[in-house]
Amino acid sequence: MITFLDGRQVPGEAAGVSVLLPTQPAETLNADRVAFYREVFRLGRQPTAVSLQVVEERDSNSQTDGQPLESLTLSVHLLVDGHHKVQAAALEGTALTMLAFTALPVTAAHQYLKAWIERTQLKTARFDALSRSPE
């Protein structure tokens, strides 16, 4: 969701933040179940977790090198199911799939809904591509 060139954010591009928030404390996870999913990842499988995604678009007051950014997109995934899978993926340093149910903003009027969904899909796809690229 953020466009970079030579390690710097490109002015005028939409900025974005995407986070995954667990709904279960890490200390309540079952170590045997995490170990099970670590083995699943080692076998080359990609389990799926489930989240509720809340997306908020705002005009950005942020700047980079004195140039204003176009907009700011906040994407929060509340982890509903798959805490053991997410922990195992983090420990293995690998990706997992996420089934995300997106909560639409209350402010989205019917005539703008299709455009909002298309923008959100585009920004999510850009973020996914960036998060998969090596650092």
Layout of helices and strands:
Blueprint: E1 4-5, E2 8-9, E3 15-22, H1 31-42, E4 48-59, E5 63-64, E6 67-68, E7 71-81, H2 83-92, E8 97-103, H3 110-132
Parallel strand pairs: 3-7, 4-8
Antiparallel strand pairs: 1-2, 4-7, 5-6
Summarize the structure.
The protein has 135 residues and is of the alpha/beta class.
Q: Could you describe the 3D structure shown?
A:
With about 140 residues, this protein is of the alpha/beta class. The protein contains 3 helices and 8 strands; from the N terminus they run E-E-E-H-E-E-E-E-H-E-H. The strands form 3 sheets. A 4-stranded mixed β-sheet has the order 3-7-4-8. The chain has a two-stranded antiparallel sheet with strand order 1-2. Helix 1 packs across helix 2.
- Bulk shape: elongated
| Strand line-up in the sheet with most strands | 3-7-4-8
Give the N-terminus to C-terminus distance in angstroms.
Answer: 16 Å
Binned, the helix content reads: 25-40%
Please tell me how large the radius of gyration is.
17 Å
**Nearest-integer average pLDDT:** 75
Largest sheet: 4 strands, mixed
Q: Enumerate how many helices there are, as a single number.
A: 3
The secondary-structure element order is EEEHEEEEHEH
Structural class comes to: alpha/beta
Annotation keywords:
single chain, 135 residues, alpha/beta, four-stranded mixed beta sheet, two-stranded antiparallel sheet, 8 strands, 34% strand, disordered N terminus
